[in-house]
Amino acid sequence: MLKEEAQTLFKEVMGNYPTGVTIVTAADHNGEPVGLTVNSFASVSLDPLMILWSIDHKVSTINAFTEGKKFAVHILAGDQQELCKTFASKNVDRFSTCDWRFSENSLPIIEGAFAVLQCKTFKQVEAGDHTVLIGEVIDIQIEKRDPMLYHRRNFGSIPAEFYTLT
């Protein structure tokens, strides 16, 4: 199989794998907020609490995440599709479109997410065209909201029928 063909099939397979959606934020070297939409997010450890996510080497704000010592992962709520799209866009003042604040850990926190995990960077691993960041969770916030689901390039809440299936 040709590399290009394999990459196309891989994208199709991964696009059919349902995931949650996150926005990861940090402060750059000037203290300005940066953030991007990420769906490559997973839990790693309960003791200590750890998560991981990955960032493409081509992302313009990669240095804020790889050189910084902390970041915040926002697990988006089902009604935050527009915010998700904004943080996935290029050349947009992303933070002007949402309510946010700096936390006690000096991290930009976006209001309205299902949950926010503030982390200190534990380890970084180079993996092909991405860097995997592993973070130790130092603060957790959760709201009584439904999380967002991403599947086949579509975003939305988990349907109520999902919970009635047996």
UniProtKB/TrEMBL annotation:
Q: Which SMART domains does this one have?
A: Flavin_Reduct
Task: Name the Gene3D superfamilies on file.
Answer: Electron Transport, Fmn-binding Protein, Chain A
Q: Which UniProt keywords apply?
A: Oxidoreductase
Name of a matching Pfam family:
Flavin_Reduct
Entry keyword annotation includes Oxidoreductase: yes
| Residues annotated as domain Flavin reductase like | 14-157
The terms under GO molecular function for this entry are: FMN binding; riboflavin reductase (NADPH) activity
Which family does the record assign? Belongs to the non-flavoprotein flavin reductase family.
PANTHER family per record: FLAVIN REDUCTASE, FLAVIN-DEPENDENT MONOOXYGENASE, REDUCTASE SUBUNIT HSAB
Q: What is this protein called?
A: Oxygenase
Tell me the organism. Domibacillus epiphyticus
Name the lineage: Bacteria, Bacillati, Bacillota, Bacilli, Bacillales
